[in-house]
Amino acid sequence: MTDTTVRYYDSTMTGAPNTVNNTAGGLLSVLNACLDTGFNSVTLTSLAVSSHVATATKANHGFAALTDGTIRVYPVIRISGATPAELNGDWRLASIPDADTFTFATPGISDQTASGTITAKRAPLWSTATTSCVAHTGTNKAAYRRVDPLATAMVLRVDDTTTTYATVKGYEAMTDIDTGSGAWPSAARYLYKAANSTPVGWAVIGDACAVYVWTNSGDYWAESLFFGDALSYKAGDAYHALLIAATASSAFGSIMRELGTVNGADWCRNLAQAATVGAARYSHAKSGSYLGYAGNAWPAAADSGFHAWPVEVWDGTTAARGLMPGLWNPLHAGQPPHGTLIDAIPQLPGRVLQVRKEEDYYRLALDLTGPWR
Hints:
The chain is mainly beta. It has one helix spanning about 25-35, and strands at about 5-10, 40-45, 45-50, 55, 65, 70-75, 75-80, 90, 95-100, 100-105, 110-115, 120, 135-140, 140-145, 155-160, 165-170, 175, 180, 185-190, 200-205, 210-215, 225-230, 230, 240-245, 265, 275-280, 280, 310-315, 320-330, 340, 355-360, 360-365. The strands form 7 sheets. The chain has a 7-stranded antiparallel beta sheet, with no helix packed on it. Strands 23, 27, 28, 29, 30, 31 and 32 form a 7-stranded antiparallel beta sheet that branches.
């Protein structure tokens, strides 16, 4: 079965909010669209199943694959309002033949033409068709939960009342937007937005248990946030949620690329399940203290390929605790270029990684096809 848990969104997509600038609330519009509501909702003209493939028609539907011209990663869409009900739900598209047609595989559904007022949209990351991921709201504030039963109960609170940056914090539980328990970390954490009213690019990548967010200040992609569950080594680890975000509210503050430090990265609680603790990240020694900062040439001399290493997360700096979901460390010095799609990776058969730039000299790679868990 094709994975639908990993989903990618960015500011260039049809229907995506273009609201990240120095305006209060602009970041929340993006997070609401990607995490909760989805976007680019269209009413289909027809939806028909033949030989276990559904073909949808809608003039200028607006859905497109992420591509470099050769490799394609198709979006996950949400179908609603169809009869039979088996067609309703989240599907990764299999093809987009033209601007008016798209297809997806429908194993187990017999040949037929669906009826009803049928809609399709970019499927949100965390909300289901019946359950919102927005736990609490206030003026230019929101708290987001993961509704998947495999996710921990921790909540991400985003305060977007300031113009150039948002303040972020994790909570174990909340009763309203300004009241909660088990807040972490104690120090403020930030996601920088923009210096002026000109909207900047953004990207959101995640699965049902975690999300990465980037904003683009000056073509550097140097502002980032991670919130969610790591891949814990500890059986029954109820507090393996992480928050990774900038420690300063100014531009170029991303610490996603940093290795060997707890700077800006914190577990909800430590391995003893007692108190919050820093989360140092480690990977291949050849990359130095940063992701994608050093290593062999690209393409690699041995096989003309792309070499990447997982990113491990420790309890403080003393005990290995788990892995970062979907995140890989390119072992090439500042290469490949931003946005490069990589497939045919021996240790990741069937996967596609997107290389992302964090300032000029650093690279990281995200698995866009999944699953991460």
